[in-house]
Amino acid sequence: MPDQGQKHEGGQIDLHGAAGKGADGHYRDFHAYEHRLSSQLAVTVVMGEVQVPNPGVEVSLSYAVPQGINPAILLLRIEFYQRPGIWPQVLTWKQVHFARISTGPANYTQADVVSGGLIAVHVPVQHV
Hints:
The radius of gyration is 15 Å and the shape is elongated. It has strands spanning about 5-10, 25-40, 40-50, 55-65, 75-80, 90-105, 110-115, 120-125. By secondary structure, the protein is mainly β.
């Protein structure tokens, strides 16, 4: 993510309403899949779109630490970065993705996107 600008954890940036799959309407078209390359190697990908209040906001997904008590659920933290400058206040959809190569058994059944300490999106993981 950019070195400049202000970082916001999910829920701290002002996101105005819109239609979507997420509980608050700011998330849509989220998909997750896991591809087993071998018995000890897997690639997990989660992607979707997030609505932000202006085009200067960048969005990222990162591996949440701690992961939680259920090893079958992948927890991802969403963070927002407001780039410096003057941006028009136009609701904009931004693509966001997360990819991870895991060694050992991963076998996720669900990915949860955590925003501001709350789960914003539940995404079932497809195994391909």
